[in-house]
């Protein structure tokens, strides 16, 4: 839903489970998206800190000095 709303403003989101064809190699596609993105929106939700993938993706963006914006849900930091 967020992606659909932002698309109205010319913002294209990469959401792995929506953006990758099921037969493509996920890691390669995610890395390509991380190499070419101009900004990141991080959805902090319960369980976010338990995901090694989320942590790595945010770290990759911060390492590239890509602006990252956090949206907090249910009091998450």
Describe the structure.
The chain is an alpha+beta fold and 77 residues long. Helices cover 43% and strands 13% of the residues. It has four helices and two strands, in the order H-H-H-E-H-E. The protein has helices at residues 2-7, 16-19, 26-36, 52-63, and strands spanning 40-44, 68-72. Strands 1-2 form a two-stranded parallel sheet. Strand 1 (40-44), helix 4 and strand 2 form a beta-alpha-beta unit. The longest helix is centred in the last third of the chain and has 12 residues, at 52-63. The chain is globular and about 35 Å long. The two termini are 23 Å apart. The model has no long low-confidence stretch (mean pLDDT 84).
Write the layout of secondary structure elements.
Layout: H1 2-7, H2 16-19, H3 26-36, E1 40-44, H4 52-63, E2 68-72
Parallel strand pairs: 1-2
How many β strands by DSSP? 2
Strand proportion: 5-15%
* Largest sheet: number of strands, sense, barrel closure: 2 strands, parallel
User: DSSP helix count?
Assistant: 4
Low confidence ranges: none
State the separation between the terminal residues, measured CA to CA: 23 Å
Calculate Rg over CA atoms. 13 Å
Chain-averaged pLDDT: 84
Strand arrangement, major sheet: 1-2
Q: Look at the helices and sheets and give the structural class.
A: alpha+beta
Tell the overall outline.
globular
**Share of helix, binned:** 40-55%
């Amino acid at each position: 839903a967020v992606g659909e709303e932002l698309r109205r403003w010319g913002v294209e989101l990469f959401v792995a489970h929506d953006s990758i064809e099921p037969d493509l190699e996920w890691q390669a596609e995610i890395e390509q998206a991380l190499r070419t993105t101009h900004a990141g929106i991080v959805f902090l939700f319960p369980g976010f800190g338990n995901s090694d993938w989320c942590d790595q993706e945010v770290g990759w963006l911060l390492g590239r000095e890509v602006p990252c914006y956090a949206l907090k849900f249910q009091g998450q930091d």
